[in-house]
């Protein structure tokens, strides 16, 4: 039986992740839980902290590892929420993650004395390998998305665009396959090609300007809209071997650009 100290550490660790991802909020996810994880979540949600801690303390190390792995796998691949992928993207890029639903996703102190904090806007994209493989086998009619260095701004307006231009946050676009992080790229919001792409979509949706209670549901962009920026930065990249192994989930031209960025960084 694990020691009480190990139990407390494991308990605090699991609690941390439970707080981040939010437990018991989607039936579809719960249906895929193993019995061990389901039981632990039930105790966490309905019993005392002492009973929850005791349940973990009485579990083997292997069991706790399996539960934590299942929990992370489910939430980092959650199609309805990018919270965990956003958190990883922001923190690995050196920003303090903001949990506020409205506003930018993170901030960090400027290197200039007395300078304003630098904001960031994270745009993580996760590709499910099952979707791609199903399409290749002819089991899926529509072609699934691949990683193209892009992302989108939901419920966008000209007013929001103007606000973002004034703040000029750094955009963090990241790519995952089945929850595996493969890259993080950073560039300024006020990148010419990027701005033009958003402007065109806003103008098409709002030909006469913003309308009350009306939004551009998704303003999209890809690597083509920012890759010419002189201030582009490769924050994180998986190894060349890992990128090659996952090449089937990338836009081919973007993957080559990613390799070029890696070579430039050396």
Secondary structure elements and their pairing?
Elements: H1 4-21, H2 27-30, H3 35-46, H4 49-57, H5 61-76, H6 83-92, E1 96-97, E2 106-108, E3 118-127, H7 129-136, E4 151-156, H8 158-167, E5 170-177, E6 180-188, H9 192-205, E7 216-221, E8 233-237, H10 240-245, H11 252-265
Parallel strand pairs: 3-5
Antiparallel strand pairs: 1-2, 2-3, 4-7, 5-6, 6-8
Helix pairs in contact: 1-4, 1-5
Specify Rg, calculated over alpha carbons: 21 Å
DSSP, total strands = 8
Query: What is the strand content?
Result: 15-25%
Distinct helical segment count: 11
State the helical fraction: 40-55%
- Give the termini distance in whole angstroms: 48 Å
Q: Unreliable segments (pLDDT under 50, ≥5 consecutive)? A: 16-32
Brief summary:
This protein is α+β, with helices and mostly antiparallel strands.
Would you write up a description of this structure?
The chain is an alpha+beta fold. Helix content is 45%, strand content 18%. It contains eleven helices and eight strands. It has helices spanning 4-21, 27-30, 35-46, 49-57, 61-76, 83-92, 129-136, 158-167, 192-205, 240-245, 252-265, and strands at residues 96-97, 106-108, 118-127, 151-156, 170-177, 180-188, 216-221, 233-237. The protein has a six-stranded mixed beta sheet with strand order 1-2-3-5-6-8, with helices on both faces. Strands 4-7 form a two-stranded antiparallel sheet. A hairpin with an 8-residue loop joins β1 and β2 (106-108). α1 runs parallel beside α5. The longest helix has 18 residues, at 4-21.
């Amino acid at each position: 039986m694990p020691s009480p100290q190990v139990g407390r550490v494991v308990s605090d660790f699991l609690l941390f992740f439970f707080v981040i991802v939010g437990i018991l909020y989607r039936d579809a996810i719960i249906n895929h839980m193993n019995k061990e994880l389901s039981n632990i979540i039930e105790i966490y949600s309905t019993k005392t902290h002492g009973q929850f801690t005791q349940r973990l303390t009485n579990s083997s190390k292997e069991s706790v590892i399996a539960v934590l792995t299942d929990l992370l796998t489910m939430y980092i691949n959650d199609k309805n929420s990018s919270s965990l992928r956003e958190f990883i993207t922001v923190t690995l890029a050196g920003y303090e993650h903001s949990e506020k639903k409205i506003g930018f996703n993170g901030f960090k102190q400027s290197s200039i004395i007395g300078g304003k904090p630098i904001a960031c806007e994270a745009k993580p994209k996760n590709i499910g390998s099952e979707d791609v493989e199903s399409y290749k086998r002819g089991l899926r009619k529509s072609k699934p998305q691949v990683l193209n260095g892009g992302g989108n701004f939901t419920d966008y307006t000209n007013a929001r665009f103007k606000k973002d231009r004034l703040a000029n946050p750094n955009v963090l676009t990241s790519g995952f396959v089945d929850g595996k992080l493969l890259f993080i790229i950073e560039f300024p919001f006020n990148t010419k090609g990027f701005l033009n792409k958003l402007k065109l979509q806003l103008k098409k949706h709002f030909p006469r300007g913003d309308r009350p209670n009306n939004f551009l549901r998704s303003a999209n962009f890809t690597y083509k809209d920012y890759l010419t920026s002189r201030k582009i930065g490769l924050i994180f990249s998986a190894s060349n071997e890992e990128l090659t192994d996952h090449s089937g989930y990338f836009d081919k031209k973007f993957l080559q650009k990613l390799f070029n960025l890696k070579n430039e960084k050396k």
